[in-house]
Specification:
CATH topology of one domain: 7-stranded beta/alpha barrel
Family: Belongs to the glycosyl hydrolase 57 family.
Largest sheet: 10 strands, mixed
GO molecular function, one term: 1,4-alpha-glucan branching enzyme activity
Structural class: alpha/beta
Distance between the termini: 53 Å
Number of helices: 20
Shape: globular
Keywords: Carbohydrate metabolism
Oligomer: single chain
Number of strands: 10
CATH architecture of one domain: Alpha-Beta Barrel
CATH class of one domain: Alpha Beta
Protein name: Glycoside hydrolase
InterPro entries: 57_glycoside_trans_central, BE_C, Branching_enz_MT3115-like, Glyco_hydro/deAcase_b/a-brl, Glyco_hydro_38_N_sf, Glyco_hydro_57/38_cen_sf, Glyco_hydro_57_N
Strand content: 5-15%
């Protein structure tokens, strides 16, 4: 008997990191690692589930920046080179480790893994968006839209036109890549504030995902907490993140990924083998980086790591998949006793957790889905949209402004380390509105410059840059990206207003920052 529903939601995002102007840029590898470690392993699992006639349902957001990069010819060629280098290195490792029984097994494992990844990539015509479109078309996957460049919308709301542009361009990008308008949207960082309501409605959004606090502190109080959606006064539904299922995966002290039998993320041969051996497979400037070949397991809180045992790790996956499954069964049983409609447990995670940070993560998803479908359990897997179709009567309530960041607020993205960003992008936003209102009948050249100015503004607005600065990771790169896009915007603004557009400079920017080919700068016009 079906007492409730589970909705697994994977948020897939990368900032726009395309650098044809640079030789072997480090940051492009963020995308390549995501493809090899997360996206293709998940595609392989979805394909295997379909082949085994497992009737599953999963939801994924794929942001416009990621969609664009996954379909970019230059980046796909670069990824293929990266993957072939990985295979070449794994072949060398088979020879190097042949006298060490444990390492030899692992070297062969990585070689077979990389070759399988290449096979999947080739099977989808070197464009993995083809796979996601297929799963979506077959009904196994629901794909959510997102804002154009993952801008943190509440912090852009001082310029309502910037928010409108982020959402409008994001929806248009979804339509171009997926072939139809989206039902749901992933608000970047699950960040919600009241001013977003009318913009989401304008672009036909039916629902979005929010942090637990958004529903728990809703007004009036949500009758069922996060276990049923609420609806804004304009009819848009809101689903809240379940804390219990989140902590089982995310938590530092109780999360599955910390098990000592899983692969150790921070030990990679790119940092450990002699430079003369590893040099062809790291950055061309001899900067040591991850190769994806990691021979150790977490072991414990020690530097003396033991070798990774794939068989033992997969046994742990079965245990954790079983545990997660049983917890959801118990959770549904308890919730259904106090609700007059079946509860929905919404489990949103960053896709990059599954495979990149937690190497065995895709196997965990596979195990949980199979446990669900093989057992006559009390719940079914569902997408948020399908739940709304089944239960269209939703309590009217206003969610509380919040995000899924630390403290449930916006402090990760605006604090003493990164607050300077907003002076720059808010000023550019005001100028973009001025341009859009002024140049209502632009020439072809003006239109190109105005559209490129809009692209540069959106790329500067990405929430990734303040996040990186706050976490003190690739700070120099993030600061450079913000300043570059702001400088490019300002130069375009000056050239447009002075009627002195430099065609050569404009063409260079169009080739570098080539996102959103069909963008229309007039989306920044003030509403009358």
């Amino acid at each position: 008997m079906t007492k409730g529903y589970i909705s697994i939601i994977l948020h897939s995002h990368m900032p726009f990191i395309r650098h044809p102007d640079l030789k072997d840029p480090l940051e492009e590898r963020w995308l390549f690692e995501g493809i090899s470690e997360c996206y293709i392993p998940l595609i392989s699992i979805y394909d295997k589930l379909i082949k085994d006639h497992v009737d599953f349902k999963i939801t994924m957001s794929i942001t416009p920046t990621l969609m664009t990069m996954l379909e970019d010819e230059y980046l796909n060629k670069r990824y293929l080179q990266y993957l072939k280098k990985s295979i070449e290195l794994s072949e060398k490792e088979i020879k190097r480790t042949k006298y060490n029984k444990e390492l030899a097994v692992l070297a062969k494992f990585y070689n077979e893994r990389f070759c399988k990844i290449l096979g999947v990539y080739k099977n989808y015509d070197y464009n993995i968006m083809n796979a996601f479109r297929k799963f979506h078309r077959l009904g196994y996957l629901e794909v959510l839209a997102s804002s154009a460049t993952h801008g943190l919308l509440p912090l852009l709301a001082i310029n309502p036109e910037s928010v409108k542009a982020q959402i409008g361009v994001g929806v248009q990008c979804y339509l171009e890549h997926m072939g139809h308008v989206p039902d749901g949207i992933w608000l970047p960082e699950c960040a919600y504030t009241y001013s977003l309501d009318y913009v989401l409605k304008e672009f036909g959004i039916k629902y979005f995902i929010a942090e637990n606090k958004a529903l728990v502190n809703a007004s009036p109080k949500s009758r069922y907490g996060v276990y049923a959606p609420i609806a804004l006064p304009n009819g848009i539904s809101v689903f809240g993140r379940d804390v219990e299922s989140s902590y089982q995966v995310w938590s530092d002290f109780m999360g599955y990924p910390g098990d000592f039998n899983y692969r150790e993320f921070y030990r990679d041969i790119g940092y450990e083998l002699p430079l003369e051996y590893i040099e062809p497979y790291i950055n061309e400037n001899k900067i040591r980086i991850d190769t994806g070949i990691k021979y150790y397991r977490i072991t414990g809180n020690t530097d003396n790591k033991e070798y990774y045992n794939r068989k033992r790790a997969l046994e742990k996956i079965k245990e954790h998949g079983e545990h997660f499954f049983k917890c959801r069964v118990e959770q549904i049983d308890k919730l259904s006793e106090h609700m007059d409609q079946p509860p929905i447990i919404v489990c949103p995670y960053d896709t990059e957790l599954f495979g990149h940070w937690w190497f065995e993560g895709p196997d965990f998803i596979d195990e949980f889905i199979r446990k669900t479908m093989q057992n006559n359990c009390n719940y079914k897997l569902i997408s948020p949209m399908d739940y709304l179709k089944k239960y269209p009567i939703v309590q009217c309530s206003s969610p509380c402004p919040s995000s899924w960041g630390e403290n449930g607020d916006f402090s990760v993205w605006i604090n003493p380390h990164n607050q300077w960003i907003y002076r720059e992008i808010h000023k550019c936003g005001e100028q973009m509105v001025r341009l859009s209102n002024t140049y209502t009948n632009s020439t072809d050249l003006q239109r190109r410059a105005l559209n490129q100015a809009a692209r540069e503004l959106m790329l500067a607005e990405s929430s990734d840059w303040p996040f990186i600065i706050k976490n003190n990771t690739a700070v120099e790169y993030a600061v450079k990206r913000i300043n570059n896009h702001v400088d490019r915007f300002n130069k375009l603004y000056d050239s447009i207003t002075k009627n002195a557009i430099d065609l050569k400079y404009l063409s260079q920017l169009e080739a570098l920052d080539n996102i959103f080919e069909s963008i229309d700068y007039k989306i920044y016009q003030e509403s009358k």
